[in-house]
């Protein structure tokens, strides 16, 4: 079916990544394909600063995040199907849409919780990606309200 799939990783809802990979495995062409991943560190984008912390601590936190993201990717995506796994800094939906331009996947698989009251006011990353992506977007629902 599809040759290239992008799955954003959300470390606050890490349990959704294996579910998304399961769906991707069902959607990939029987001749193979590639699963790409992206984690977006949004700390600076939303005004969260580490200015008071020593640079060594922030560097260590970034290295730990990188290790977790790459470990998650390697643990759940079969080696023959692994594409790129990137970490970017910025606003989640903006970076996902930029990664779509770079990787050019046929499908983006993005997790979303049940809509809560706050999503009516703020909108979710999944909704913004769904509206603005150039290709297809599949939303994988979690039963919890985010």
From TrEMBL:
Pfam families: Usp. Residues 1-141 form the UspA domain. Transmembrane segments: none annotated. InterPro entries: Rossmann-like_a/b/a_fold, Universal_stress_UspA, UspA. Belongs to the universal stress protein A family. This is Universal stress protein.
């Amino acid at each position: 079916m599809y040759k290239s799939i992008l799955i954003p990783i959300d470390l606050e809802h890490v349990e959704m990544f294996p579910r998304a990979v399961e769906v991707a495995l069902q959607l990939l062409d029987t001749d193979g394909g590639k699963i790409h991943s992206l984690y977006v560190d949004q700390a600076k984008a939303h005004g969260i600063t580490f200015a008071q912390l020593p640079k060594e601590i922030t560097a260590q936190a970034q290295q730990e995040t990188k290790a977790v993201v790459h470990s998650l990717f390697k643990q759940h995506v079969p080696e023959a199907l692994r594409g790129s796994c990137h970490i970017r800094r910025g606003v989640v939906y903006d970076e996902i849409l930029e990664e779509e331009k770079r990787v050019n996947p046929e499908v983006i698989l993005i997790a979303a919780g049940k809509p809560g009251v706050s999503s009516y006011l703020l909108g979710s990353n999944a909704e913004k990606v769904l509206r603005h992506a150039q290709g297809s977007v599949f939303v994988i629902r979690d039963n919890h309200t985010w």
